[in-house]
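User: tokens in, sequence out, please.
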């Protein structure tokens, strides 16, 4: 089981370049990316998304790539020779026409900023990608390890809460068995007190009482509740993302808890049901962070 919260970083450095990669992820309903790249490497974004999508399924993933060039040939300074020749001719003409003294030096050429241009390697992204991919794999592994550790902690917490829900349901079932008998006795007495001076069909009365008592029965809800708890535990052993399934099961558990609460025949059962719903809500908060 993996959490959707994690962080990882890695570096690559050689004589000509330095690369830094940072990964961070937080919970999100779907897989969403925020990729920060130097402008000259922006074409790598689809490749990064593809590499990450092979490993992750949910979460908001931020990828930051830092790149520094030490002279790998990615950028070259190019002299505009035609412009330099034209400048030199014009300077010689000026010197001759106006009878100027002194030699023509480099400082005269540097007064023209366009004499030099920086040529960027159009294949830089393609050249750098293998090194970025190597660093990215290391950073992603670190992030996945953190997500797995967090997922293990969440799993332990959820198992403890499942055990508590199981105990609370057993308590409700025990209280319900006791309450049904008491409820039938009280209901019979109340109806008898109301109708004590009237002729009534005793068999019909017994049937009506049994119907009202059955309406307070929670057997079906308890069976479904236990089934959902079993499926919840079973999800822990499955490979791949389980967060959405766990969230769905919690919705069903909450639905059964609501029905049980509406059938509660006394305050003690109602109190336990409230505790059950509180635990389900706490579990829902935890599950929101599970991939």
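Assistant: Sequence out:
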């Amino acid at each position: 089981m993996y959490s959707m919260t994690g962080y990882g970083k890695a570096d690559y450095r050689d004589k000509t370049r330095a690369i830094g990669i940072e990964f961070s992820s937080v919970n999100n309903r779907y897989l969403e990316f925020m990729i920060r790249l130097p402008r000259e490497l922006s074409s790598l974004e689809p490749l990064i998304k593809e590499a990450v999508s092979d490993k992750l399924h949910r979460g908001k993933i931020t990828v930051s790539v830092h790149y520094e060039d030490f002279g790998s040939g990615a950028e070259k300074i190019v002299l505009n020779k035609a412009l330099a020749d034209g400048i030199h001719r014009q300077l010689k003409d000026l010197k001759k026409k106006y009878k100027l003294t002194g030699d023509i030096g480099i400082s005269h050429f540097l007064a023209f900023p366009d004499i030099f241009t920086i040529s960027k390697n159009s294949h830089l992204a393609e050249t750098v990608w293998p090194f970025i991919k190597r660093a990215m794999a290391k950073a992603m592994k670190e992030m996945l390890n953190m997500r797995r550790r967090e997922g293990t902690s969440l799993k332990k917490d959820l198992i403890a809460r499942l055990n508590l829900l199981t105990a609370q349901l057993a308590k409700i079932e025990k209280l319900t068995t006791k309450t049904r008998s008491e409820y039938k006795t009280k209901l019979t007495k109340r109806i008898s007190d109301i109708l004590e001076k009237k002729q009534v069909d005793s068999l019909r009365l017994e049937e009506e009482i049994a119907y009202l008592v059955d309406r307070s029965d929670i057997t079906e809800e308890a069976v479904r509740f236990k089934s959902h708890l079993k499926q919840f535990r079973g999800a822990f052993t499955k490979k791949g993302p389980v967060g959405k399934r766990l969230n769905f099961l919690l919705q069903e558990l909450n639905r059964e808890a609501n029905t049980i609460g509406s059938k509660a025949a006394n305050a003690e059962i109602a109190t336990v049901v409230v505790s059950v719903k509180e635990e389900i809500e706490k579990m829902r908060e935890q599950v929101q962070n599970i991939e």
